[in-house]
């Protein structure tokens, strides 16, 4: 089997990711987190518990990564750490109890936070463009 196409795709993807700003990478993570929470919700509605658990587990991994990359020397970093702890706690509860209501609540909060970061990224880019 020829893996040349896959290697080219992987190399191109790595170049694209390495060219992204930290804000763009953060939004990419949040988009993936929202996607996984939505899939978990759909899987729960279909009673596909294997997919539900896989998506909640992946969501927890993303939240853990976001938490691990925080700079806690600033107040916003410490505040986000507490929020990520809350998300982890709630997602573990969702996973253990297949709790649809809590899943919807966490998903809404994550989407709101993602939208806030998206606006901050737009503002940052606009300010950088006006300075340059």
Number of strand segments: 0
Mean pLDDT comes to 89
Give the ordered list of helices and strands: HHHHH
Tell the overall outline: globular
Beta content comes to under 5%
**Class inferred from helices and paired strands:** mainly alpha
Q: Radius of gyration, Cα only, in angstroms? A: 17 Å
What would the keywords be for this entry?
single chain, 132 residues, mainly alpha, 5 helices
Mind sketching the topology for me?
Blueprint: H1 4-18, H2 22-45, H3 49-68, H4 75-97, H5 100-131
Helix pairs in contact: 2-3, 2-5, 3-4, 4-5
Give me a quick take on this structure.
Helices cover 86% and strands 0% of the residues.
Walk me through this protein's architecture:
The structure is a single chain. With 132 residues, this protein is mainly alpha-helical. It is 86% helix and 0% strand. It has 5 helices and no strands. Helix 2 runs antiparallel to helix 5 (100-131) and helix 4 packs antiparallel against helix 5. The protein is globular. The termini are far apart. 14% of the residues are buried. The model has no long low-confidence stretch (mean pLDDT 89).
């Amino acid at each position: 089997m020829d893996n040349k196409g896959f290697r080219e795709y992987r190399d191109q993807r790595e170049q694209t990711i390495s060219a992204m700003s930290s804000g763009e990478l953060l939004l990419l993570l949040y988009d993936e987190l929202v996607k996984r929470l939505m899939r978990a919700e759909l899987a729960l509605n279909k009673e596909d518990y294997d997919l539900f658990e896989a998506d909640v587990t992946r969501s927890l991994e993303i939240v853990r990564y976001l938490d691990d990359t925080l700079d806690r020397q600033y107040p916003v970093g410490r505040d986000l750490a507490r929020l990520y702890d809350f998300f982890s706690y709630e997602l573990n509860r969702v996973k253990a109890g297949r709790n649809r209501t809590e899943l919807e609540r966490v998903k809404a909060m994550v989407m709101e936070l993602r939208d806030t970061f998206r606006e901050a990224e737009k503002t940052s880019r606009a300010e950088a463009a006006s300075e340059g």
